[in-house]
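Changelog entry: the DUF1803 domain-containing protein record was regenerated in this release. Current contents:
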Amino acid sequence: MKLIVEDNWQKNHSLLRDTFFEGVASFLTNRKEKPPTLREIKSRFPEVKVDRAIEEYIQLGLIARSDRRYQLIVPVYNVLSSNELIEKKVASLKTILAEWSVESRRAWFVLQGQRLKKEPQVYFVEEMMELFYFRELCSDQLIVQELADEPHAKTIPAYFSALREGDASLYEPFAYLGDVNTEYYLDQLAVLFEKARKQSRRIRPTIFLQSLVDFGFLTDTFVLRSVVEMTTQTPIQQAPFAKADACVAELTNFEKRRIFVELWHFFEKAPLTIVHQDEWVFLANAES
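Regenerated structure tokens:
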């Protein structure tokens, strides 16, 4: 089984990264018919301080205790059992979304990502597969959003997520940024985006400017690749989302993320980063 901890699950991630949790979860799953006692769990994991760990998992809502026996309450999803449902939903949504503009489709993906973010979940899958990823960073001046079909895309939100999780080695080409503070970084970008938009000649080379090149927002000559001025007539604000929303209502996060990644593959070529600054929107494709 593979444990999935969604990015915005704000509880103690370090406990879930412990190999004991995956081990005890697998043990409890295999003992569904007759949940084990604490003594049995201790016997299975003699090298672990089981009492304390189990209590922490109970507090996190991952394991339940009843009549001195223990059960896993983290969902375990079987990929094959949901394939038929996923295929039907994807087919319906392809037809609906195909009638929309690119801007409207992307806005819908952002909306769905924000909904997932509000109720992040922890679950196991019996085998790994591609999932949809949405991450968002906010400051007083910028909103930075990631839409991706992989966990470690070349995007600003994914980079900072990796730093938080201790996975900086996944972004070795960006090592020059060091352990830069997220807020400070976004403040620097806000200045640079404004200068680039106005084609200012007073943009001096910095690590922040170089990162905008490397993340795909600027060309090597510091010209913006894609910038859009939003107006009240923008198609994003006119999108008929209700029918598409109904297709994914009542589904689990896991099912939604499987559906969204299939749709993303169909309509887009690569992970996308969207930056909002006042009425301006800047785009970066991870393949740039």
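The mean pLDDT is 89.
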